[in-house]
Design a protein that fits this description.
single chain, 139 residues, mainly alpha, 79% helix, 0% strand
Length: 139
C-alpha cells in the first residue's frame, strides 16, 4: 500500500465538510435570497469534489492493503464512497451553468447536490462503523 492509501483517514474529513457546507450554503442562499451564499457553495463544492476524488482513490488503496479485512461493510463503504465522489464531481460540474441555465438545469443541480450530500453522509457513517464499530455511540 502506498502512502496515499494510509492518508485516507486524514483525507476524508475535508471533502465531507466541504460538501455538507456547500449544501447548507445553497439552502441559505434560497432562504435569504443572498447570492453570496451561492458563491460560498460553489467554492466549497468544487474544492470538495477535487478532494473527494483524492480521498476515494486513497480509500481504494487502503482497502487493498493486507491489514484491512475485506467485509461486506467495507465493500458498501467503498462503492458508496466512489459514488459519492462521482456525484460530488457531477454537482461541481453542474455549477458552471446553474445561474444562467434553465429551471430544469437548476433543478438537476439541486437534485445532484442533495444526492451527493446524502451519499457523503451515509458513506461517512459507514466509515465510522468500520473504524469505531456499531456501539461507539453507546454510553
Amino acid at each position: 500500500m502506498t502512502l496515499l492509501g494510509r492518508l485516507h483517514p486524514l483525507a476524508i474529513h475535508f471533502p465531507i465538510a466541504l460538501v455538507l457546507v456547500a449544501l447548507c450554503a445553497e439552502v441559505a442562499a434560497v432562504m435569504t435570497h443572498d447570492d453570496r451564499w451561492h458563491i460560498v457553495a460553489i467554492a466549497n463544492l468544487r474544492a470538495g469534489a477535487l478532494s473527494a476524488l483524492i480521498a476515494a482513490a486513497a480509500g481504494w488503496l487502503l482497502a487493498r492493503s493486507a491489514f484491512v479485512e475485506p467485509t461486506s461493510l467495507l465493500e458498501a463503504h467503498r462503492w458508496l464512497g466512489t459514488l459519492a465522489a462521482g456525484m460530488t464531481l457531477a454537482a461541481a460540474l453542474a455549477t458552471a451553468r446553474r445561474r444562467k441555465g434553465s429551471p430544469t438545469k437548476r433543478a438537476i443541480y439541486w437534485i445532484v447536490l442533495c444526492v451527493a450530500g446524502a451519499l457523503v453522509g451515509i458513506t461517512a457513517h459507514l466509515g465510522g462503523l468500520l473504524v469505531w464499530g456499531a456501539d461507539f455511540l453507546r454510553l
